Amino acid sequence: MPELRKDPVINRWVIISTERAKRPHDFMLPKEEKKGGFCPFDYGNEHTTPPEIMAFRPADTEPNTPGWWIRVVPNKFPALDPSLEPERYGHGMYDAMKGFGAHEVVIETADHNTNMALMNLKQVEEIIWAYKHRYEALIKREGIKYVLIFKNHGSLAGASLEHPHSQIIATPIVPKRVHEELVGSREYYSFKERCVFCDMINQERLENARVVEINDDFISFEPFASRFPFETWIMPRRHVHSFKDITDSEIKGFAQILRNTLYKIYVGLDNPPYNFMLHTAPETGEGSEYYHWHLEIVPRLTKVAGFEWGSGFYINPTPPEEAAKFLREIKPGEQKLNKLKE
What we know:
This protein is of the alpha+beta class. The chain is about 25% helix and about 20% strand.
């Protein structure tokens, strides 16, 4: 029987369409063919990217040369330009502003042929350290109000290069989706005097039906009102509104649960395209009592069609409880697709 579920943060409704229920193997997409050829992110091609902003490399190596294990460079085709002024202006009844901001690429590894699901934990920790350092640097810039860290994996998810990388965009405004979460969590707090995200964590731990993995510091779970099949959120278990406040020990826990969750998706769904987005409160102090930073992973297994665009509803053919059970049963070291090919 189909079911309507309400997101407790932004009050968006989702249809869990059990009549259209799909098993994981029903989502298998055609294999993406490797393009091959020249890659500007590959080891030894450092001179072909814009000059690096930051790199993790031995102290005796020069910038923009081999030796690195993480590099951060400006995007060669940036969405926003840091040289502009954040000037607002009107166009008749319309509002606009100059395209001020910053757009950076985090080259996650020198290995062209791996991905975050298969990396060792130390490398994933280093990626998170790079995120933290660049977040702290960008959010201090005058005119910057928000820094979004995100990853597009696979061409169907928007990745134009195969080499493992993620991106950071700093904007002069708080994104609408984050603003909606801030408003919704503030309203929840004003009514219940509790953080909605902390309540979600407690509920998921109590039921244990949608939990994918949990460690001392983080929880990975399928949201109750998941918009998409196998949509997965990762949250710190302690109440903390800003990603900037992640501790050294939490970086280890975050790396572990992020890598393990992506591994389960990689194994169970045969390396699907996906996006992940890190949502954090703006650095104004807003949300310190009622917001909770988190990472959202969205495998690109279905298409958003006319009903979704026209109504704002999402139709999810896989109940999150079934998705969580499937992912939870995949253990480290399990052979790819062995469960699906039985």
